[in-house]
Amino acid sequence: MADKMTQNNKIQLAIPSNGALYESSLNFLSQSGIPVLRSNPRKYSALIPNLKGVHILFQRTSDITSKVEDGSAELGIVGLDRYLELKGQNNNSSILINDLGFGECSLLLGVPNSWIDVTSLADLIDLTIEFRNKGKTLKIATKFPKLVKKHLIDNGINHFKLIRSDGTLEVAPEMGFADIIADISSSGTTMRENNLKTIKGGTILNSQAILIGNKKIINSNKSKLELSQMLINTIDSHIYASQSYILTANLNVNDTNKIIKKLNSLIIDPKISISDLYSPSKEKLYKLELIINKAELLLVINTIKKSGATNIKVYKPEYLF
Fold this sequence. Notes:
Blueprint: H1 2-9, E1 11-16, H2 20-31, E2 45-47, E3 54-59, H3 61-69, E4 75-79, H4 80-86, E5 94-97, E6 105-112, H5 121-133, E7 138-142, H6 145-154, E8 160-164, H7 172-175, E9 180-185, H8 189-193, E10 196-197, E11 203-207, E12 209-213, H9 215-219, H10 222-242, E13 244-251, H11 256-266, E14 271-277, E15 285-293, H12 294-306, E16 310-315
Parallel strand pairs: 1-3, 1-4, 7-8, 7-9
Antiparallel strand pairs: 2-3, 4-12, 5-12, 6-9, 6-10, 6-11, 13-15, 13-16, 14-15
Helix pairs in contact: 11-12
């Protein structure tokens, strides 16, 4: 009975068992301070020793969305592209963190280089009309029919045929079973090497790794909810920290409100604290502490230097809660 209760209170986090997101997911969790312990590379389950009660379930990327939606796993790491393509209409899953900071890629239309007059989506619209007038239909090979169909219809392309293919798509136009393709690409290199080109307006989706969850199941169990919040907070704090710096400095100014106002105008999401420092002289000394992103760092340093700041130090935090 106790074992069954323990099982009911644990959290299953589904992550890719292979492919581009497999190593990236493991590295991300390790960098977040919650490394995965997989005792055997052939096992499809593992543990996170730092988070007791959170179990890892290795699944095919194409199965993770359905596993979360049917409750086999409460949480999952998956690409936004796969999630939006495979998400059901029952609303059993939600995006909990919309960018984990890895797995960046795009779903792109690829047309043959020989189509020199087709450089944009507008040109493709004209081409589909030409095809229709000749009694032909533009054939598009893709692994993402749902996303491709929506993109084309939203942009006024209605005369086409989608060919679902899970194989290598880049050869489809050359083999003759499709005219163009819509596929995932990180750099466009594979398309170029197969005599295909991208077109203006042909980006269907910019994707990245996300965290999804089954809120209905998580919220129905206090232990699952607490474990999920611990995991999400840990990941969130690591992501925030990876994008941020902590800057400290000593200020010798008469008007701290003036420097705060100036910094507020420079920083997108200002997190500023100023506190009194002990000074053996009669001069008033303050300690300034800021949380800023990399793009703001040099500008802020230059600004506070002009205001007489000393002892300026910059730290890279591991977590920011």
